[in-house]
Write a structure and sequence with these properties.
Ribosomal Protein L30, Chain: A; globular; three-stranded antiparallel sheet
Length: 64
Amino acid sequence: MAGKKTVTVEQYRSAIRRPAVQTATLKGLGLNKLRRQRTLEDTPAVRGMINSIAHLVRVVEVKK
């Protein structure tokens, strides 16, 4: 991923009692437990997935 834009996403709310499509989106992003973080390539597809479950995840600012 060197040289490409990335975005770090953290799950901070549970997927319990959420629609199955939202749980599947979390799994697609590599998140399935609270406080889990993933660094993903910043593409329109990933941004769309993040926007569809914005109430369950947050974008983490990485300090360098």
